[in-house]
Amino acid sequence: MSMYSNFGTEKSLEVEGVWTNYGDFRVKIAHAGGANKPFLTYGEQTMKPFRRAIDSGSFPRERMEAILFDIYAKHVVKGWEVNRGEPGEDDWVPGIEGPDGDVIPFNYENVMSTFKALPALFYDIKEVAESIAAYRQMDLEDEAKNS
Asked: How far apart are CA 124 and CA 117, in angstroms?
């Protein structure tokens, strides 16, 4: 296996995102880096005023988390759907499941609210977005062969 097969990514998917299935919902996640230039540019602009405090380890964790939520809500999360089908059936509806179970619109504010309510979900999305695995050509080719 060549290094290009192992580490080459599909650049369009890095920007547009890939669906990550969580069972009853799925999130379209763009790469946090690589070809996703809006993410890189906005992240750098947003973090620049705080760079010294971040580098020294004195930047408050809660403030860092709020900044990361913003960056990811704007430039990484590209879609969100809820499965309203019966068990074993797919009936994907655009939107985010709210705390009461109703589907609320997919938009920046609702993504931010979800991240604040479920930070563990944010960190899972962040892990997917930072990994090249979801965007690798080799994995995409294998997935196409298996479907």
From this structure: 14
